[in-house]
Design goal:
The chain is 46% helix and 15% strand. The protein is an alpha/beta fold and 447 residues long. The strands form four sheets. Strands 9, 10, 13, 14, 15 and 16 form a six-stranded mixed beta sheet that branches. A five-stranded parallel beta sheet has the order 2-6-1-7-8. It has a three-stranded antiparallel beta sheet with strand order 3-4-5, with helices on one face.
């Protein structure tokens, strides 16, 4: 799910958003840093704020990147790090004016929505829930008293920019924030306002941890009330949705099926990588995941024309041989290049209920496709429908746990063979962690 946090300067948005993202195991996206980076680029190139043509030309070439290093977030314009420079008073003085420019907002909205299309995240800013993601499942609006906002902003400046902070006192900071509010609320395009349906939190008398607790509790409450994720997927074909819903209903009624870690879902090309113990695994995983998925099936399954037609409609692709086969490898890469999500059992064959050895070929697929791997632990399928039985038990208990994505970028610095082995080892460790987390009581967010 996408979670948006909006509010005026000094309400604690950035600190709260970072901690909420950490608690929920979601990426954090600071949109304010993007507008500040554009403001920095305008100053760096000596462009007047009145020169709309020059600013438009700058935006046509503008690139923005967020990089994590040693637990710290760093912001880049092109290859120039601007993390510290975008927080100066010079930027404070013009950022609201820059953010009010239609071309600036339109360009940055594209970047923000592209990121949100690929993965769930916590988006923090001034128009996230009202304009950029009006259909976000969870929208938060923070507010605070003018006095508290001024004190917080002054402390932040004293910590980051002690020399510039000397020119301010609480009263002067209140005037500065009032000026910023007037600009933000008064602009014609995307003015600052409380998003429709947002959960409002007054942070004036609350600690950061208390605010975070309120938001996390609200997030979980909303999650529990939402229908299965696949019912919210707009691009899902009717026949696929109907079959998946039927499977979900079957597992819910007969096996009390539960899903954990849906927070880790994403819309980019991905390999869903579950442990494999039962014939139940494909329908369990596909009915638990909120997007359409694709499968590989032995060509013999397609010999019956009616059954073959049916499984093709459910995104099953006929292949000869196993994953190590070149043609199979090419089929998977083709699907991933089309931004599809593929269910691939990394152990190769069904096991007797225990986690098996992960084949290193999945590492090669990840590096070639630049996709993501979603570690997935399926529990209870072996007991409900063992591989040596012709029919499943009518009742039981099953669960599907999705873990944190494994991204190709994390292994880009390694040699090809070393990267493949490292990815297989990471996936093995992730599946073991998910199993341990589930058996320990399944509390909080899966690792």
């Amino acid at each position: 799910m996408i979670l948006t946090i909006d509010g005026s300067a000094g309400t604690g948005k950035t600190t709260v958003a970072r901690k909420v993202a950490e608690r929920l195991g979601l990426p954090y996206f600071d949109t304010g840093a993007m507008y500040r980076s554009v403001a920095w680029a305008i100053l760096d190139q000596g462009i007047s704020l009145e020169d709309t043509e020059a600013i438009s030309n700058l935006l046509d070439k503008f690139t923005f990147d967020i990089r994590e290093h040693d637990g710290e977030t760093h912001y880049f314009v092109g290859e120039r790090e601007v993390t510290g420079e975008i927080r100066t008073q010079k930027i404070n003085e013009i950022v609201s004016q820059v953010a009010a420019m239609p071309k600036v907002r339109e360009v940055l909205w594209v970047i923000q929505r592209t990121y949100g299309h690929k993965t769930n995240a916590v988006f923090e800013g001034r128009d996230m829930g009202s304009v950029v993601f009006p259909n976000a499942e969870v929208k938060i609006f923070l507010k605070a008293s003018p006095k508290m906002r001024a004190e917080r902003r002054l402390k932040e400046m004293q910590a980051k920019l002690p020399e510039e902070a000397k020119a301010f006192d609480p009263e002067k900071m209140k005037k500065e924030l009032k000026r910023r509010d007037s600009l933000d609320k008064g602009r014609k395009l995307a003015p600052l306002k409380c998003p429709k349906g947002a959960f409002k939190v007054d942070t004036s008398s609350l600690t950061i941890e208390e605010v975070v607790d309120k938001i996390v509790d609200y997030y979980h409450t909303r999650s529990e009330k939402l229908l299965p994720g696949f019912l919210h997927c707009r691009n899902m074909r009717p026949i696929y949705r109907f079959v998946i819903f039927t499977a979900w209903l079957y597992f819910k009624l007969l096996h009390r099926h539960k899903v954990y870690g849906i927070e880790h879902s994403m819309k980019r090309a991905a390999i869903i990588a579950p442990n494999h113990t039962s014939y139940y695994d494909p329908p369990l995983v596909s009915s638990s995941w909120p997007e359409e998925v694709h499968f590989l099936g032995r060509v013999t399954l397609f010999r019956n024309p009616i059954f073959g037609w049916f499984i093709r409609k459910l995104n099953t692709h006929p292949v000869h041989g196993g994953v190590a086969d070149v043609s199979v490898f090419k089929t998977i890469l083709k699907l991933l290049s089309e931004e599809k999500q593929v269910v691939l059992f990394p152990e190769g064959e069904r096991t007797d209920g225990k986690l098996g050895e992960i084949k290193p070929g999945i590492g090669m697929l990840l590096m070639k496709s630049k996709a993501a791997i979603i570690p997935t632990y399926v529990d209870g399928a072996y007991e409900a429908f063992p591989r040596d039985k012709k029919w499943p038990k009518l009742f039981g208990k099953t669960s599907c746990v999705f873990g944190s994505p494994i991204l190709s970028e994390s292994f880009a610095h390694l040699e090809k063979k070393e990267a493949q082995l490292a990815i297989a080892a990471k996936l093995t460790a992730s599946l073991k962690e998910l199993k341990a987390w589930f058996e320990a009581g399944a509390e909080g967010i899966p690792p």
